[in-house]
# Entry
Amino acid sequence: MKKILFVLLLTLSASLAFGQFTLGPKIGYTTSKLSTELEDIHSSIKEDFDFGLFMRIGRKVHLQPEIIWTSKGAHLERTENSNLKAINQEIKLKTIDIPLHLGFRLVNFGVGNIRFLFGPNASIVVDKTVSIQEKEEYINPIKTADIEDLIWAVNVGGGIDLFMFTIDVKAQFGINDIVEQADNIDFHAKTNLFIVSLGWKIF
# Structure
């Protein structure tokens, strides 16, 4: 956490020193899903919205740090068979996401431009819930204690600037497991997100 705050302060200091920066709010639509190494576990997509602030430092080549309040998770399901009991659990996470994008302006068309972006993303989990099934035919292997408090991922995508608005479309791929093992089951579950966001450049 201290390292993340240090990076944000360093980025802010650089932007003030060089003077070429943009700042504003943004909102987004996200879809999230968990990928696991278990072939018999099905994960459905969870839809949600996020909001926060972004800063852009530089022009043709730029840094874009953000701080975003977001929700993510998935519905994990396994049907009952002769050897294994069924699983039906929903994981809901509320996180503070801190992405740091490196961007490149690809096309400039006067009133706007087209950009490519990529970079790391740190998700600090501030709230986590896991649903429990009471029926006898179900087991509930995942508990909140099994979920990591810090999730690392990488973002890859692109964006369009038009007048004072900026639109980003990106995919987020989990690096570390948010659930490695639960109740002696090796889930190795990672988060994968698709994000579309709209920002307003105030400065």
User: Anything to note?
Assistant: The chain has one helix and eleven strands. The chain has one domain: 28-200.
